[in-house]
Design a protein that fits this description.
The protein is of the alpha/beta class. It has 14 helices and 17 strands.
Length: 432
Amino acid sequence: MILNAGTLVTMNDEREVREEVHVVVEDAEITAIEDGFESGDDVVDARDEVIIPGLVNCHTHMYALPIRGAPLTASPESFYEALVDIWWEVDEAFTMEDARLSSLGSSVEMLQSGVTAFCDNYSGPNTLPGALDAVATGVAQTPIRGMITFETTARNSEDEARAGIEENQQFIREDEDEYDRVSGHYCLHTLFTNTEDVVKQTVDAAEADDRPIQIHLEEGLVDVHRSIEEYGKRPVPALEEMGFLDAEVIAAHCVHSTETEIEILADHDVNVAHNPYSNINNAVGIANVEKMEDEGMTIGIGDDGWDPDMFETMRSAVGIHKLKKNNPSGFDMAKALEWATIGSARVMGMDDSIGSIEPGKRGDFVTLDLGPNPVLPGSAPYYVVSAASRGDVTRTIVDGDVVYERGEGVRGVDDSDMEAVGEASASLWDRL
């Protein structure tokens, strides 16, 4: 494939923006970026458009898709109440078919929004064993890249937690080879929903399989308070003492992490999945990303299952960090695009192959029609973050193949598939 690019936002180390170039992709890999436009049967012509790397969502919950629009009567007044009154009820109601169809529907939405890779956390204790195979089947019907895991939780029992660990082991060791673009990892839901024994068992399994562990860390104050009650210290030093931070860790949220805790996380090379829109929606607070960056930590961005439009997630980051400083120049808008591309790719350990447009990387792109205004090289990343939306995505390209085109839908998925997603959602609502 050859891609003609009017404006190419590379997100390479130099954050280079080039105009009127073409990108050459051979055997799914970018081999060259050359000046000028090309013509021919294998050319995708985006000479009037802005091209960015495929977006990377480093923390999501695809099983959240059916809950949108559900006629829920719960009115939580705290994050913990939201978990108990909404999400844990949803977890318990999920079926194997819900797992497959929510993953399929979410993968479609992400591709329509320019997301070409994601990291997901699934929770449905009544779908064990075999849950991850159902999730992977839904994902693999589309051409998206995905890291998936079952959330280990002992909120009901340690036996249920061990079943979650075994589910991840089963998928990683026996099932994932059946899928071209889907891989497994490990997850601890939180420290406060697990025990020290479960933490250590998860670390042992992840290290044996050389996989990262994702954890929801200090998203709400309940995590902090329970840790102090149980271990006499905040979650980060408690986890450090348990040996958890010796593993490869992706810490989602970190809203209530203190500066001292952030320093501990940085010392252990922990990567952070920042979820600005979710943190707003759950009213939990704003993560101290400034301190994280000062400590040299890698930051990516996720939607936490709330909004498939990553452009809105980027704008949420811009808004909350400017507001926190009460300064309209208090946050570099281009940073949000960095988090949504190369930053998230690094969080997921995939930055050697995705997250930027340069020779040697996979041919993952998003083409954007941003209207009649000129897009200048010096302001292109800012324009994308401030003005683009999923409605501006004209194509999503994975490995040099156009897998979504505006007006044509996602490759491998038809209307009957999406009707089945909606029917499953309605059935779930009836059971809640």
